[in-house]
Amino acid sequence: MILEKINQADDIKKVDPKDYPLLAQEIRDFLIEKTSETGGHLASNLGAVELTMAIFLAFNLPEDKVIWDVGHQSYTHKILSGRKNAFDELRKFGGIAGFPKTGESPCDAFNTGHSSTSVSAALGMAQARDIRGQKHSVVAVIGDGAMTGGMAFEALNNASRMNKNFIIILNDNEMSIARNVGGLSNYLNGIRTNENYISFKEKLADRLLGIPKVGDRLVRRLKTTKDSIKKMVVPGMFFEDMGITYLGPVDGHDVKKLRKAFEEAKRVDHAVLVHVKTTKGKGYVPAENNPAMFHGVGAFDKETGLPVSRKTAPEYSDIFSEKLCSLAEKDGSIAAVTAAMPDGTGLAKFAVQYPDRFFDVGIAEAHAVTSAAGMAAGGLKPVVAVYSSFLQRGFDQILHDVCIQNLHVVFAIDRAGLVGADGETHQGIFDLSFLSCIPNMTILAPKNAKELEQDLEFALGYHGPIAIRYPRGTAYDELNDFENPVEFGKAEMLYEESDTAILAVGSMVSTGKHVREKLKADGKNCTLVNMRFIKPVDTEMIDRIAEKHNRIITMEENVLQGGMGLAIADYVHEHYPHIKVNHIAIPDGYVEHGDVTKLRHELGIDSDSVLKII
Protein backbone atom coordinates (compact mmCIF):
# COMPACT_ATOMS: atom_id res chain seq x y z
CA MET A 1 0.00 0.00 0.00
CA ILE A 2 1.18 3.49 -0.85
CA LEU A 3 -0.50 5.00 2.20
CA GLU A 4 1.71 2.95 4.53
CA LYS A 5 4.69 4.96 3.27
CA ILE A 6 3.10 8.32 4.19
CA ASN A 7 4.36 9.23 7.66
CA GLN A 8 5.24 12.93 7.36
CA ALA A 9 4.33 15.92 5.24
CA ASP A 10 6.99 15.46 2.53
CA ASP A 11 6.38 11.76 1.94
CA ILE A 12 3.68 12.31 -0.67
CA LYS A 13 6.26 14.02 -2.89
CA LYS A 14 8.04 10.67 -3.22
CA VAL A 15 4.95 9.04 -4.75
CA ASP A 16 5.05 8.39 -8.50
CA PRO A 17 2.45 10.67 -10.18
CA LYS A 18 0.91 7.67 -11.94
CA ASP A 19 0.04 6.33 -8.47
CA TYR A 20 -1.91 9.43 -7.36
CA PRO A 21 -5.31 7.86 -8.19
CA LEU A 22 -4.38 4.73 -6.24
CA LEU A 23 -3.29 6.79 -3.22
CA ALA A 24 -6.53 8.78 -3.38
CA GLN A 25 -8.52 5.55 -3.33
CA GLU A 26 -6.50 4.20 -0.40
CA ILE A 27 -7.17 7.42 1.53
CA ARG A 28 -10.89 7.17 0.82
CA ASP A 29 -10.97 3.52 1.92
CA PHE A 30 -9.11 4.52 5.08
CA LEU A 31 -11.54 7.37 5.81
CA ILE A 32 -14.60 5.18 5.31
CA GLU A 33 -13.13 2.40 7.46
CA LYS A 34 -12.13 4.64 10.36
CA THR A 35 -15.16 6.94 10.31
CA SER A 36 -17.54 3.98 10.21
CA GLU A 37 -16.09 3.01 13.60
CA THR A 38 -15.60 6.40 15.29
CA GLY A 39 -18.10 8.63 13.53
CA GLY A 40 -17.06 12.01 12.20
CA HIS A 41 -17.35 14.30 9.20
CA LEU A 42 -17.22 11.99 6.21
CA ALA A 43 -18.75 13.50 3.06
CA SER A 44 -16.72 16.72 3.18
CA ASN A 45 -13.48 14.78 3.68
CA LEU A 46 -14.17 12.35 0.83
CA GLY A 47 -14.67 15.33 -1.44
CA ALA A 48 -11.36 16.99 -0.54
CA VAL A 49 -8.93 14.06 -0.95
CA GLU A 50 -7.28 15.09 -4.25
CA LEU A 51 -7.43 18.75 -3.26
CA THR A 52 -5.46 18.01 -0.10
CA MET A 53 -2.98 15.80 -1.95
CA ALA A 54 -2.30 18.62 -4.42
CA ILE A 55 -1.79 21.11 -1.60
CA PHE A 56 0.85 18.85 -0.01
CA LEU A 57 2.51 18.43 -3.40
CA ALA A 58 2.52 22.11 -4.39
CA PHE A 59 3.44 23.56 -1.01
CA ASN A 60 5.98 22.80 1.68
CA LEU A 61 4.25 22.11 4.98
CA PRO A 62 4.73 23.12 7.75
CA GLU A 63 6.85 26.01 6.39
CA ASP A 64 3.97 27.08 4.16
CA LYS A 65 0.77 27.79 6.10
CA VAL A 66 -2.59 26.28 5.17
CA ILE A 67 -5.71 27.40 7.04
CA TRP A 68 -8.77 25.19 6.59
CA ASP A 69 -12.11 26.93 6.95
CA VAL A 70 -14.29 25.14 9.52
CA GLY A 71 -11.94 22.15 9.34
CA HIS A 72 -14.59 19.53 8.55
CA GLN A 73 -12.46 18.53 5.57
CA SER A 74 -9.09 18.27 7.33
CA TYR A 75 -8.90 14.48 7.81
CA THR A 76 -6.78 13.89 4.69
CA HIS A 77 -4.56 16.75 5.84
CA LYS A 78 -4.06 14.92 9.13
CA ILE A 79 -3.31 11.65 7.34
CA LEU A 80 -0.73 13.18 5.01
CA SER A 81 0.96 15.08 7.84
CA GLY A 82 1.70 11.92 9.82
CA ARG A 83 -1.34 11.25 12.01
CA LYS A 84 -2.99 8.29 10.29
CA ASN A 85 -2.05 5.93 13.13
CA ALA A 86 -4.03 8.08 15.57
CA PHE A 87 -7.35 7.72 13.73
CA ASP A 88 -8.60 4.90 15.95
CA GLU A 89 -8.98 7.57 18.64
CA LEU A 90 -10.47 10.24 16.35
CA ARG A 91 -12.74 12.60 18.35
CA LYS A 92 -12.40 10.46 21.47
CA PHE A 93 -11.32 11.87 24.83
CA GLY A 94 -7.54 12.20 24.72
CA GLY A 95 -7.40 11.35 21.01
CA ILE A 96 -6.94 13.53 17.95
CA ALA A 97 -9.55 16.18 17.20
CA GLY A 98 -11.87 16.25 14.24
CA PHE A 99 -10.70 19.76 13.41
CA PRO A 100 -7.25 21.35 12.92
CA LYS A 101 -5.44 21.82 16.22
CA THR A 102 -2.11 23.62 16.45
CA GLY A 103 -1.18 21.52 19.47
CA GLU A 104 -1.36 18.31 17.43
CA SER A 105 1.02 19.14 14.60
CA PRO A 106 3.08 22.05 13.24
CA CYS A 107 1.22 21.42 9.96
CA ASP A 108 -1.95 22.76 11.63
CA ALA A 109 -1.40 26.48 11.27
CA PHE A 110 -4.58 27.72 12.93
CA ASN A 111 -7.38 26.26 15.10
CA THR A 112 -10.71 26.24 13.29
CA GLY A 113 -14.20 24.91 13.90
CA HIS A 114 -16.64 27.62 12.83
CA SER A 115 -17.28 28.75 9.30
CA SER A 116 -16.15 31.69 7.14
CA THR A 117 -12.99 32.46 9.13
CA SER A 118 -10.10 31.08 7.05
CA VAL A 119 -9.57 34.03 4.71
CA SER A 120 -9.42 36.47 7.63
CA ALA A 121 -6.99 34.31 9.60
CA ALA A 122 -4.81 33.58 6.58
CA LEU A 123 -4.76 37.23 5.55
CA GLY A 124 -3.48 38.17 9.00
CA MET A 125 -0.80 35.49 8.78
CA ALA A 126 0.25 36.77 5.34
CA GLN A 127 0.48 40.30 6.67
CA ALA A 128 2.63 39.06 9.56
CA ARG A 129 4.81 37.20 7.06
CA ASP A 130 5.36 40.33 4.99
CA ILE A 131 6.13 42.57 7.96
CA ARG A 132 8.68 40.03 9.20
CA GLY A 133 10.28 39.72 5.76
CA GLN A 134 9.45 36.04 5.35
CA LYS A 135 8.80 34.30 2.02
CA HIS A 136 6.56 31.30 2.69
CA SER A 137 3.15 30.81 1.09
CA VAL A 138 -0.06 31.37 3.02
CA VAL A 139 -3.16 29.55 1.80
CA ALA A 140 -6.79 29.81 2.89
CA VAL A 141 -9.11 26.95 1.93
CA ILE A 142 -12.77 27.96 2.06
CA GLY A 143 -15.94 26.19 0.91
CA ASP A 144 -18.64 27.72 -1.22
CA GLY A 145 -21.08 27.33 1.66
CA ALA A 146 -18.77 29.29 3.95
CA MET A 147 -18.71 32.08 1.38
CA THR A 148 -22.27 32.97 2.41
CA GLY A 149 -20.88 34.26 5.71
CA GLY A 150 -20.31 38.00 5.81
CA MET A 151 -16.92 37.64 7.46
CA ALA A 152 -15.60 35.97 4.30
CA PHE A 153 -16.54 39.02 2.24
CA GLU A 154 -14.98 41.39 4.74
CA ALA A 155 -11.76 39.41 4.37
CA LEU A 156 -11.94 39.35 0.56
CA ASN A 157 -12.40 43.10 0.55
CA ASN A 158 -9.14 43.52 2.46
CA ALA A 159 -7.33 40.75 0.61
CA SER A 160 -7.76 42.70 -2.62
CA ARG A 161 -5.28 45.25 -1.23
CA MET A 162 -2.47 42.73 -0.87
CA ASN A 163 0.60 43.48 -2.97
CA LYS A 164 2.30 40.17 -2.28
CA ASN A 165 1.24 36.59 -2.90
CA PHE A 166 -1.81 35.42 -0.98
CA ILE A 167 -3.72 32.32 -2.10
CA ILE A 168 -7.38 31.50 -1.56
CA ILE A 169 -8.66 28.07 -2.60
CA LEU A 170 -12.42 27.98 -3.08
CA ASN A 171 -13.56 24.37 -2.58
CA ASP A 172 -16.84 24.41 -4.45
CA ASN A 173 -19.00 21.34 -3.86
CA GLU A 174 -22.36 23.15 -4.04
CA MET A 175 -22.97 22.26 -0.39
CA SER A 176 -22.42 23.67 3.07
CA ILE A 177 -24.22 21.16 5.29
CA ALA A 178 -27.55 21.54 3.59
CA ARG A 179 -27.61 22.59 -0.06
CA ASN A 180 -26.44 26.15 -0.60
CA VAL A 181 -28.91 28.96 -1.08
CA GLY A 182 -28.85 32.52 -2.33
CA GLY A 183 -27.23 34.76 -4.88
CA LEU A 184 -23.64 33.63 -4.38
CA SER A 185 -24.65 30.04 -5.07
CA ASN A 186 -26.33 31.17 -8.28
CA TYR A 187 -23.20 33.15 -9.25
CA LEU A 188 -20.92 30.16 -8.74
CA ASN A 189 -23.31 28.01 -10.74
CA GLY A 190 -22.77 30.43 -13.61
CA ILE A 191 -19.00 29.96 -13.40
CA ARG A 192 -19.29 26.18 -13.06
CA THR A 193 -21.35 25.83 -16.21
CA ASN A 194 -19.36 28.21 -18.39
CA GLU A 195 -17.22 25.67 -20.19
CA ASN A 196 -16.84 27.98 -23.22
CA TYR A 197 -14.45 30.28 -21.37
CA ILE A 198 -12.46 27.44 -19.80
CA SER A 199 -12.06 25.65 -23.12
CA PHE A 200 -11.25 28.86 -24.98
CA LYS A 201 -8.56 29.89 -22.47
CA GLU A 202 -6.83 26.51 -22.48
CA LYS A 203 -6.81 26.06 -26.27
CA LEU A 204 -5.69 29.63 -26.98
CA ALA A 205 -2.80 29.48 -24.52
CA ASP A 206 -1.62 26.10 -25.83
CA ARG A 207 -1.64 27.26 -29.45
CA LEU A 208 0.14 30.53 -28.74
CA LEU A 209 2.84 28.83 -26.69
CA GLY A 210 3.44 26.55 -29.65
CA ILE A 211 4.57 29.46 -31.85
CA PRO A 212 8.40 29.47 -31.99
CA LYS A 213 10.24 32.39 -30.38
CA VAL A 214 7.25 34.72 -29.95
CA GLY A 215 4.74 32.40 -28.23
CA ASP A 216 5.69 33.29 -24.66
CA ARG A 217 5.66 37.01 -25.46
CA LEU A 218 2.22 36.79 -27.07
CA VAL A 219 0.77 35.03 -24.03
CA ARG A 220 2.19 37.71 -21.72
CA ARG A 221 0.78 40.50 -23.87
CA LEU A 222 -2.62 38.87 -24.11
CA LYS A 223 -2.76 38.75 -20.32
CA THR A 224 -3.70 42.42 -20.44
CA THR A 225 -6.81 41.56 -22.47
CA LYS A 226 -7.74 38.53 -20.37
CA ASP A 227 -9.98 40.50 -18.05
CA SER A 228 -12.04 41.76 -20.97
CA ILE A 229 -12.40 38.24 -22.36
CA LYS A 230 -13.53 36.95 -18.96
CA LYS A 231 -16.12 39.68 -18.61
CA MET A 232 -17.59 38.74 -21.98
CA VAL A 233 -18.10 35.07 -21.18
CA VAL A 234 -18.20 34.72 -17.38
CA PRO A 235 -21.07 36.46 -15.57
CA GLY A 236 -19.97 39.22 -13.20
CA MET A 237 -16.37 38.22 -12.65
CA PHE A 238 -17.00 39.10 -9.04
CA PHE A 239 -13.54 38.23 -7.73
CA GLU A 240 -11.63 39.93 -10.55
CA ASP A 241 -13.73 43.08 -10.07
CA MET A 242 -12.60 43.08 -6.43
CA GLY A 243 -8.96 42.99 -7.53
CA ILE A 244 -8.41 39.29 -6.82
CA THR A 245 -7.01 37.22 -9.69
CA TYR A 246 -9.33 34.33 -10.51
CA LEU A 247 -8.03 30.94 -11.70
CA GLY A 248 -10.36 28.12 -12.66
CA PRO A 249 -12.63 26.35 -12.35
CA VAL A 250 -10.30 23.38 -11.85
CA ASP A 251 -11.36 19.74 -11.59
CA GLY A 252 -11.01 19.09 -7.87
CA HIS A 253 -10.42 15.38 -8.40
CA ASP A 254 -7.49 15.71 -10.82
CA VAL A 255 -4.31 15.98 -8.75
CA LYS A 256 -2.10 17.03 -11.67
CA LYS A 257 -4.40 19.86 -12.76
CA LEU A 258 -4.79 21.02 -9.18
CA ARG A 259 -1.05 21.03 -8.58
CA LYS A 260 -0.50 23.00 -11.79
CA ALA A 261 -3.10 25.56 -10.74
CA PHE A 262 -1.53 25.96 -7.30
CA GLU A 263 1.94 26.38 -8.79
CA GLU A 264 0.52 29.07 -11.07
CA ALA A 265 -1.15 30.76 -8.10
CA LYS A 266 2.19 30.91 -6.26
CA ARG A 267 3.57 33.13 -9.02
CA VAL A 268 0.90 35.84 -8.63
CA ASP A 269 2.18 38.89 -6.75
CA HIS A 270 -1.13 39.73 -5.06
CA ALA A 271 -4.28 37.93 -3.91
CA VAL A 272 -5.36 35.05 -6.12
CA LEU A 273 -8.36 32.74 -5.87
CA VAL A 274 -8.28 29.21 -7.28
CA HIS A 275 -11.79 27.90 -7.91
CA VAL A 276 -11.88 24.12 -7.40
CA LYS A 277 -14.93 22.00 -8.23
CA THR A 278 -15.36 18.91 -6.04
CA THR A 279 -18.06 16.38 -5.26
CA LYS A 280 -19.04 16.03 -1.63
CA GLY A 281 -18.96 12.36 -0.64
CA LYS A 282 -16.80 11.44 -3.66
CA GLY A 283 -16.06 7.72 -3.97
CA TYR A 284 -18.65 6.41 -1.50
CA VAL A 285 -22.08 5.97 -3.07
CA PRO A 286 -24.20 6.46 0.08
CA ALA A 287 -22.38 9.74 0.81
CA GLU A 288 -22.59 10.92 -2.80
CA ASN A 289 -26.32 10.21 -2.86
CA ASN A 290 -26.98 11.86 0.50
CA PRO A 291 -24.10 14.21 1.37
CA ALA A 292 -26.10 16.07 4.00
CA MET A 293 -26.73 12.87 5.97
CA PHE A 294 -23.03 11.98 5.77
CA HIS A 295 -21.81 15.44 6.74
CA GLY A 296 -21.51 14.40 10.36
CA VAL A 297 -22.18 10.76 11.22
CA GLY A 298 -22.01 8.35 14.09
CA ALA A 299 -20.72 4.82 13.64
CA PHE A 300 -22.22 3.16 10.55
CA ASP A 301 -22.14 -0.04 8.49
CA LYS A 302 -19.66 0.78 5.73
CA GLU A 303 -21.28 -1.71 3.33
CA THR A 304 -24.75 -0.15 3.51
CA GLY A 305 -24.09 3.29 4.98
CA LEU A 306 -26.77 2.68 7.61
CA PRO A 307 -26.19 3.77 11.23
CA VAL A 308 -25.04 1.06 13.61
CA SER A 309 -27.47 2.24 16.28
CA ARG A 310 -30.87 3.39 15.11
CA LYS A 311 -32.69 6.20 16.86
CA THR A 312 -35.31 4.56 19.08
CA ALA A 313 -36.65 7.60 20.92
CA PRO A 314 -37.34 11.18 19.83
CA GLU A 315 -34.60 13.74 20.28
CA TYR A 316 -35.11 17.28 21.53
CA SER A 317 -34.85 18.53 17.94
CA ASP A 318 -37.74 16.23 16.99
CA ILE A 319 -39.89 17.47 19.87
CA PHE A 320 -39.18 21.07 18.89
CA SER A 321 -39.99 20.33 15.25
CA GLU A 322 -43.35 18.71 15.92
CA LYS A 323 -44.49 21.36 18.39
CA LEU A 324 -43.45 24.28 16.20
CA CYS A 325 -45.31 22.86 13.21
CA SER A 326 -48.38 22.30 15.36
CA LEU A 327 -48.33 25.88 16.64
CA ALA A 328 -47.68 27.28 13.16
CA GLU A 329 -50.78 25.51 11.86
CA LYS A 330 -52.89 27.65 14.19
CA ASP A 331 -50.88 30.87 13.95
CA GLY A 332 -49.95 32.22 10.53
CA SER A 333 -47.60 34.81 12.01
CA ILE A 334 -45.06 32.20 13.13
CA ALA A 335 -41.96 32.12 10.91
CA ALA A 336 -38.78 30.04 11.20
CA VAL A 337 -35.19 31.06 10.44
CA THR A 338 -32.10 28.86 10.17
CA ALA A 339 -28.48 29.45 9.19
CA ALA A 340 -27.89 26.52 6.81
CA MET A 341 -29.08 23.94 9.37
CA PRO A 342 -32.68 22.97 8.52
CA ASP A 343 -32.11 19.28 9.26
CA GLY A 344 -29.90 19.62 12.33
CA THR A 345 -32.18 22.11 14.06
CA GLY A 346 -35.40 20.25 13.24
CA LEU A 347 -36.77 22.82 10.79
CA ALA A 348 -36.84 20.54 7.73
CA LYS A 349 -40.47 19.55 8.38
CA PHE A 350 -41.48 23.19 8.91
CA ALA A 351 -39.80 24.08 5.60
CA VAL A 352 -41.96 21.53 3.77
CA GLN A 353 -45.22 22.43 5.49
CA TYR A 354 -44.79 26.21 5.53
CA PRO A 355 -42.31 27.11 2.79
CA ASP A 356 -43.47 30.74 2.61
CA ARG A 357 -42.65 31.20 6.30
CA PHE A 358 -39.32 29.35 6.28
CA PHE A 359 -36.04 31.18 5.72
CA ASP A 360 -32.63 29.52 5.32
CA VAL A 361 -30.16 32.40 5.21
CA GLY A 362 -27.03 30.30 4.64
CA ILE A 363 -24.07 30.29 7.01
CA ALA A 364 -24.84 33.78 8.28
CA GLU A 365 -25.93 33.74 11.91
CA ALA A 366 -25.61 37.50 12.40
CA HIS A 367 -27.89 38.12 9.44
CA ALA A 368 -30.31 35.45 10.70
CA VAL A 369 -30.74 37.32 13.99
CA THR A 370 -31.19 40.78 12.50
CA SER A 371 -33.52 39.57 9.76
CA ALA A 372 -35.61 37.95 12.50
CA ALA A 373 -35.61 41.30 14.31
CA GLY A 374 -36.99 42.86 11.15
CA MET A 375 -39.68 40.19 10.95
CA ALA A 376 -40.65 40.86 14.56
CA ALA A 377 -40.77 44.60 13.89
CA GLY A 378 -43.04 43.80 10.93
CA GLY A 379 -45.52 41.86 13.03
CA LEU A 380 -44.34 38.25 12.71
CA LYS A 381 -43.27 35.84 15.45
CA PRO A 382 -39.89 34.61 14.20
CA VAL A 383 -38.22 31.55 15.70
CA VAL A 384 -34.45 31.43 15.15
CA ALA A 385 -33.36 27.80 15.47
CA VAL A 386 -29.60 27.60 15.98
CA TYR A 387 -26.92 25.56 17.72
CA SER A 388 -25.66 27.13 20.93
CA SER A 389 -22.07 27.55 19.78
CA PHE A 390 -23.18 29.13 16.49
CA LEU A 391 -25.40 31.66 18.28
CA GLN A 392 -22.21 33.21 19.65
CA ARG A 393 -21.69 34.63 16.19
CA GLY A 394 -24.84 36.72 16.48
CA PHE A 395 -24.21 38.23 19.91
CA ASP A 396 -23.97 41.84 18.73
CA GLN A 397 -27.18 41.48 16.74
CA ILE A 398 -29.03 39.94 19.69
CA LEU A 399 -27.99 42.83 21.89
CA HIS A 400 -28.37 45.75 19.48
CA ASP A 401 -31.03 44.70 17.01
CA VAL A 402 -33.32 42.50 19.10
CA CYS A 403 -33.00 43.35 22.79
CA ILE A 404 -32.55 47.13 22.71
CA GLN A 405 -35.82 47.31 20.81
CA ASN A 406 -37.38 44.59 23.01
CA LEU A 407 -38.54 42.72 19.91
CA HIS A 408 -40.35 39.42 20.15
CA VAL A 409 -37.81 37.01 18.68
CA VAL A 410 -37.74 33.43 19.95
CA PHE A 411 -34.31 31.78 20.04
CA ALA A 412 -34.53 27.97 19.97
CA ILE A 413 -31.03 27.03 21.10
CA ASP A 414 -30.20 23.44 20.21
CA ARG A 415 -27.04 21.55 21.28
CA ALA A 416 -26.87 23.55 24.53
CA GLY A 417 -24.40 22.13 27.03
CA LEU A 418 -21.85 19.45 26.21
CA VAL A 419 -22.07 18.04 22.69
CA GLY A 420 -19.11 15.67 22.83
CA ALA A 421 -16.92 14.69 19.91
CA ASP A 422 -16.76 18.03 18.06
CA GLY A 423 -14.81 19.57 20.92
CA GLU A 424 -13.99 23.10 22.05
CA THR A 425 -15.52 25.01 19.17
CA HIS A 426 -18.87 23.24 19.39
CA GLN A 427 -19.54 22.76 23.10
CA GLY A 428 -22.62 24.85 23.91
CA ILE A 429 -21.48 25.94 27.35
CA PHE A 430 -21.51 29.73 27.14
CA ASP A 431 -25.02 30.72 26.04
CA LEU A 432 -26.47 31.17 29.53
CA SER A 433 -23.61 33.51 30.36
CA PHE A 434 -23.60 35.70 27.28
CA LEU A 435 -27.39 35.92 27.09
CA SER A 436 -27.89 36.59 30.79
CA CYS A 437 -25.95 39.84 30.64
CA ILE A 438 -28.32 41.36 28.04
CA PRO A 439 -31.23 43.50 29.33
CA ASN A 440 -34.73 42.47 28.15
CA MET A 441 -33.64 38.87 27.50
CA THR A 442 -35.59 36.02 29.09
CA ILE A 443 -34.06 32.52 29.21
CA LEU A 444 -35.69 29.14 29.87
CA ALA A 445 -34.40 25.57 29.88
CA PRO A 446 -36.82 22.63 29.93
CA LYS A 447 -36.28 19.64 32.21
CA ASN A 448 -37.75 17.16 29.71
CA ALA A 449 -39.50 16.72 26.37
CA LYS A 450 -42.94 17.71 27.63
CA GLU A 451 -41.61 20.92 29.15
CA LEU A 452 -39.89 21.88 25.90
CA GLU A 453 -43.33 21.86 24.28
CA GLN A 454 -44.68 24.01 27.11
CA ASP A 455 -41.75 26.41 26.91
CA LEU A 456 -42.13 26.87 23.16
CA GLU A 457 -45.82 27.60 23.46
CA PHE A 458 -45.10 30.04 26.29
CA ALA A 459 -42.33 31.74 24.31
CA LEU A 460 -44.52 32.30 21.26
CA GLY A 461 -47.19 33.85 23.45
CA TYR A 462 -44.65 36.09 25.20
CA HIS A 463 -43.79 39.67 24.23
CA GLY A 464 -40.07 40.39 23.97
CA PRO A 465 -36.80 38.53 23.35
CA ILE A 466 -36.83 35.01 24.75
CA ALA A 467 -34.48 32.02 24.48
CA ILE A 468 -35.09 28.33 25.10
CA ARG A 469 -31.98 26.19 25.43
CA TYR A 470 -32.06 22.41 25.23
CA PRO A 471 -29.42 19.68 24.85
CA ARG A 472 -28.39 17.39 22.04
CA GLY A 473 -29.72 13.87 21.84
CA THR A 474 -32.58 11.81 23.21
CA ALA A 475 -35.26 13.84 24.95
CA TYR A 476 -35.59 13.09 28.66
CA ASP A 477 -39.01 11.56 29.27
CA GLU A 478 -39.29 11.31 33.05
CA LEU A 479 -40.74 13.69 35.66
CA ASN A 480 -43.91 13.97 33.56
CA ASP A 481 -46.10 13.70 36.67
CA PHE A 482 -45.62 17.37 37.44
CA GLU A 483 -48.32 19.44 35.74
CA ASN A 484 -47.22 22.91 36.81
CA PRO A 485 -47.86 25.38 33.97
CA VAL A 486 -45.05 27.65 32.80
CA GLU A 487 -45.38 31.05 34.44
CA PHE A 488 -43.01 33.92 33.77
CA GLY A 489 -39.98 33.76 36.08
CA LYS A 490 -41.35 30.93 38.21
CA ALA A 491 -39.43 27.81 39.23
CA GLU A 492 -41.08 24.43 39.79
CA MET A 493 -40.89 22.56 43.09
CA LEU A 494 -40.46 18.86 42.36
CA TYR A 495 -39.68 17.33 45.78
CA GLU A 496 -39.71 19.41 48.96
CA GLU A 497 -37.92 18.27 52.11
CA SER A 498 -35.21 19.98 54.18
CA ASP A 499 -31.46 20.35 54.84
CA THR A 500 -30.04 20.18 51.27
CA ALA A 501 -31.77 21.74 48.27
CA ILE A 502 -30.74 21.09 44.69
CA LEU A 503 -31.66 23.94 42.33
CA ALA A 504 -31.14 22.55 38.86
CA VAL A 505 -31.97 23.76 35.38
CA GLY A 506 -32.42 22.08 32.02
CA SER A 507 -30.49 18.87 31.46
CA MET A 508 -29.15 18.95 35.02
CA VAL A 509 -32.62 18.34 36.51
CA SER A 510 -32.34 14.67 35.58
CA THR A 511 -28.90 14.55 37.23
CA GLY A 512 -30.39 16.22 40.28
CA LYS A 513 -33.07 13.55 40.40
CA HIS A 514 -30.41 10.81 40.40
CA VAL A 515 -28.52 12.56 43.18
CA ARG A 516 -31.67 12.88 45.26
CA GLU A 517 -32.50 9.19 44.82
CA LYS A 518 -29.04 8.19 46.03
CA LEU A 519 -29.27 10.54 49.02
CA LYS A 520 -32.69 9.16 49.94
CA ALA A 521 -31.32 5.63 49.76
CA ASP A 522 -28.71 6.75 52.30
CA GLY A 523 -31.40 8.19 54.57
CA LYS A 524 -30.72 11.88 53.80
CA ASN A 525 -33.27 14.58 53.04
CA CYS A 526 -33.07 16.43 49.75
CA THR A 527 -35.24 18.99 48.01
CA LEU A 528 -35.21 19.20 44.21
CA VAL A 529 -36.27 22.32 42.30
CA ASN A 530 -36.55 22.73 38.56
CA MET A 531 -35.55 26.37 38.18
CA ARG A 532 -36.94 26.58 34.60
CA PHE A 533 -35.92 30.23 34.20
CA ILE A 534 -32.28 31.24 34.19
CA LYS A 535 -33.28 34.84 33.71
CA PRO A 536 -35.06 36.04 35.70
CA VAL A 537 -34.13 33.86 38.68
CA ASP A 538 -37.10 33.03 40.91
CA THR A 539 -36.10 34.74 44.17
CA GLU A 540 -39.43 33.82 45.80
CA MET A 541 -38.48 30.16 45.42
CA ILE A 542 -35.12 30.90 47.06
CA ASP A 543 -36.93 32.59 49.95
CA ARG A 544 -39.04 29.46 50.35
CA ILE A 545 -35.95 27.23 50.28
CA ALA A 546 -34.21 29.38 52.91
CA GLU A 547 -36.84 28.51 55.52
CA LYS A 548 -35.84 24.84 55.92
CA HIS A 549 -32.43 24.38 54.31
CA ASN A 550 -28.83 25.04 55.30
CA ARG A 551 -27.25 24.13 51.96
CA ILE A 552 -28.07 24.89 48.34
CA ILE A 553 -26.52 23.07 45.38
CA THR A 554 -26.94 24.84 42.03
CA MET A 555 -26.64 22.71 38.90
CA GLU A 556 -26.28 23.88 35.29
CA GLU A 557 -24.56 22.58 32.16
CA ASN A 558 -22.88 25.90 31.45
CA VAL A 559 -19.71 27.62 32.58
CA LEU A 560 -19.94 28.94 36.12
CA GLN A 561 -19.02 32.53 35.27
CA GLY A 562 -22.12 34.48 34.34
CA GLY A 563 -24.44 31.51 34.80
CA MET A 564 -27.45 30.76 36.96
CA GLY A 565 -25.50 29.54 39.99
CA LEU A 566 -23.68 32.80 40.68
CA ALA A 567 -26.91 34.76 40.27
CA ILE A 568 -28.51 32.56 42.93
CA ALA A 569 -25.44 32.83 45.17
CA ASP A 570 -25.51 36.65 45.01
CA TYR A 571 -29.07 36.68 46.27
CA VAL A 572 -28.47 34.04 48.95
CA HIS A 573 -25.31 35.72 50.28
CA GLU A 574 -27.09 39.06 50.51
CA HIS A 575 -30.24 37.80 52.23
CA TYR A 576 -29.29 34.47 53.86
CA PRO A 577 -25.55 34.52 54.63
CA HIS A 578 -25.84 31.47 56.90
CA ILE A 579 -26.79 29.21 53.97
CA LYS A 580 -23.91 27.49 52.18
CA VAL A 581 -24.03 27.48 48.38
CA ASN A 582 -22.13 24.99 46.22
CA HIS A 583 -22.02 25.15 42.45
CA ILE A 584 -22.10 22.33 39.94
CA ALA A 585 -21.08 23.89 36.64
CA ILE A 586 -18.39 23.67 34.00
CA PRO A 587 -15.05 25.14 35.10
CA ASP A 588 -13.62 28.28 33.54
CA GLY A 589 -12.07 26.84 30.40
CA TYR A 590 -12.67 25.10 27.10
CA VAL A 591 -13.82 21.50 26.97
CA GLU A 592 -12.08 19.11 24.60
CA HIS A 593 -13.70 16.42 22.47
CA GLY A 594 -14.90 13.12 23.89
CA ASP A 595 -17.90 11.09 24.93
CA VAL A 596 -20.35 13.26 26.89
CA THR A 597 -20.58 10.81 29.80
CA LYS A 598 -16.80 10.80 30.10
CA LEU A 599 -16.64 14.58 29.87
CA ARG A 600 -19.30 15.05 32.56
CA HIS A 601 -17.28 12.86 34.91
CA GLU A 602 -14.01 14.64 34.11
CA LEU A 603 -15.66 18.02 34.69
CA GLY A 604 -17.28 16.95 37.96
CA ILE A 605 -20.89 17.51 36.93
CA ASP A 606 -22.17 13.91 36.98
CA SER A 607 -24.22 12.54 39.86
CA ASP A 608 -21.29 10.79 41.59
CA SER A 609 -19.28 14.02 41.60
CA VAL A 610 -22.21 15.92 43.09
CA LEU A 611 -22.57 13.31 45.83
CA LYS A 612 -18.92 13.73 46.75
CA ILE A 613 -19.43 17.47 47.18
CA ILE A 614 -22.50 16.95 49.34
The total count of strands amounts to: 17
Average predicted confidence as pLDDT:
90
Low-confidence stretches: none
> How would a textbook summarize the main sheet?
7 strands, mixed
Rg (CA only): 27 Å
In terms of DSSP E residues, the strand content is 15-25%
N-to-C terminal Cα separation, in Å?
57 Å
Total number of helices: 24
Approximate helicity band: 40-55%
Counting helices, strands and paired strands, the structural category is alpha/beta
The side-by-side strand order for the widest beta sheet comes to 7-6-8-9-11-10-15
Form type: elongated
Structure description:
With 614 residues, this protein is an alpha/beta fold. Helix content is 40%, strand content 15%. The protein is built from 24 helices and 17 strands. The chain has a 7-stranded mixed sheet, sandwiched between helices. It has a 5-stranded parallel sheet with strand order 1-2-3-5-4, with helices on both faces. A 5-stranded mixed sheet has the order 12-14-13-16-17, with helices on both faces. Helix 11 links the parallel strand 4 (245-251) and strand 5. Helix 15 packs parallel to helix 17 (395-403) and helix 20 crosses helix 24. The N and C termini lie far apart (57 Å). The mean pLDDT is 90.
